Amino acid sequence: MTAAFQMLEPDAEVRAAMRGVGLKARAAARVLANSPSGRKNMALTAAARLLRERVFEILEANAHDLAEGEAKGLAPSFIDRLTLNEARVEAIARGLEDIAALPDPVGRVLATFTRPNGLLIERVSTPLGVVGVIYESRPNVTADAGALCLKSGNSVVLRGGSDSFHSSAAIHACLVAGLKEAGLPEAAISRAPFPSRAVVGAMLEGLDGAIDVIVPRGGKSLVERVQREARVPVFAHLEGIVHVYVDRAADLEKAKKILVNAKMRRTGICGAAETLLVHRDAAPKMLKPLLAALLDAGCVVRGDDLSRRADARVKPAIDEDWRTEYLDAIISAKVVDSLDDAIDHIETFGSHHTDCILTDDSAAAEKFLKEVDSAIVLHNASTQFADGGEFGFGAEIGIATGRMHARGPVGLEQLCTFKYRVRGNGQVRA
Q1: Could you give phi then psi for residue 383, rounded to 5 degrees?
Q2: pLDDT at site 108
Q3: Measuring CA to CA, how many Å separate 174 from each of 177, 385, 393?
């Protein structure tokens, strides 16, 4: 069935087809939950090999997506996330191998205790079941999500954006071939076979109980819709309004290097800095060179009055700038009176995603790390480290900012729940 024909499928047919996908994924989840680690690892390493062998097929599919995206006038940040090259495909393949090398989280004994009546109780990690992943123009998510779910014993139903339809299909084919080589059910890593928007609605309804949790990975409108309409639990972050706070005890050269990396390394990712806060006592020495470092690197700065006085190139900020995720080479800048004011600003305007303090004052750093209520808080390091791969998770299926079950990068451990195993010797309850 061609993509052009698929886009014409009536909603009812799409929903019926997706229910079938869900049933197969649920059946595969039962197999995966009890599959040995070696077999899962075999599937991952085989998929990595196939990605390398088929790299030019993958790039050809990606070129198709890029041409369509450019014709539609997608923003440069979206084109960057969509783009694949040989190095990025190799990074995807290495990511699969990294996940294969991680310890298997399934069956891990989390706690053991014996009751006075002799009952032995164990809390043991188990897969969640079937994970639905809805994402936009990042074809690498196809591999990351598929691999993490497989290693953690979960089936996954993938729905990539229409912008990356062909790229995701080429990557998915390698994953399925890897499953087949390892003797695992091909439905363990399922993919919506058409880009219809009706797929999203069907998945949010849970595919007749097949899906246990939804992970959205994309822009604000997608995440808002998922959080509003999903009838199953959701792991998600709405926005990455990320702050870098330069304390009065910061080292200027270190601060410049970290700040420019946090903003400019990749502007379109959720860990990119969006707001610079500078302590008033540091401003006379540090504000001008910090702003110049950003501006000279090609970043637009929208600042308060003190920032504009420090560098005439700074544009005026409005209230909305403090709560904007630019995902572009733009940053807002503000001078704050104290560390407490910085923390208050982050609490008021932030999204509880990732925030950073730059300082050589250990007491100030500890206060910031303790009091800033974000999923990830950093001291003297770039916010671009807000990534499951950088945390040693192999990859991430997304970043969660909620407070239930998963928070921060969602990796293998977060894709597991637990059950209790109770062993007795004839005990009965009085």
Answers
A1: -70, -10
A2: 95
A3: 5, 28, 22
Rounded to the nearest 5 degrees, what angle is found at the Cα of 227, between the Cα atoms of 224 and 229?
Answer: 100
Q: Give the 3-state DSSP-derived string for 208-245, with helices as H, strands as E and coil as C.
A: CCCCCEEEEECCHHHHHHHHHHCCCCECCCCCCCEEEE
Q: Measured between alpha carbons, how far is 108 from 37 in angstroms, rounded to an integer?
A: 12
The lowest-confidence range among 137-146, 147-156, 312-321 is 137-146
Share of the chain above pLDDT 90, in %: 80
Q: What is the pLDDT, as a whole number, of residue 49? A: 98
**Residue 81 confidence (pLDDT) above 80:** yes
Burial of 428 (0-12, 13-18, 19+ CB in 10 A): exposed
- Which residue type does 203 have? M
Residue 118 CA to residue 50 CA, distance in Å, equals: 52
Side-chain half-sphere CA neighbours of 169 within 13 A:
18
pLDDT at 48 over 90: yes
Q: Are 339 and 247 a contacting pair, CB within 8 Å?
A: yes
**pTM of the model as a whole:** 0.84
Q: How far is residue 204's CA from residue 163's CA, in Å, rounded to a whole number?
A: 20
Report d(CA 22, CA 408) in Å as an integer: 27
CA 198 distance to own-chain centroid: 23
